[in-house]
Amino acid sequence: MFATPAFAQAAGSAGATSALTSFVPLILIFGIMYFILIRPQQKKVKEHKAMVEAVRRGDQVVTQGGILGKVTKVKDDGEVEVEIAEGVRVRVIRSTISQVISKTEPAS
Length: 108
Fold this sequence. Notes:
Its main location: membrane. Keywords: Cell membrane, Membrane, Protein transport, Translocation, Transmembrane, Transmembrane helix, Transport. By secondary structure, this protein is α+β, with helices and mostly antiparallel strands. The protein is built from two helices and five strands. The protein has helices at 5-13, 15-53, and strands spanning 60-63, 68-74, 79-85, 88-93, 97-102. It is rod-shaped and about 90 Å long. The N and C termini lie far apart (88 Å). The mean pLDDT is 86.
């Protein structure tokens, strides 16, 4: 049951290296979490931002609320005017556009 003095002395000398080796798995976990969770999410946010910035008049869009409509006016202050039915126009914040269904080509 009791540790002999020889075993107690041998365990004390490896204290500095065991502290370093105990942090290696923690560092590996953070590295794996970065590449599995954080990096793909950042990429997705960047793609969404680029999509929202490229929205122009005539595009068919879906908002986060599930409303389908056609962009009739793009304003500079982060708003877009979307026509959801004939004669019914709604102002929508750009960042709430979740998907662009069909894009229009710029006039040449």
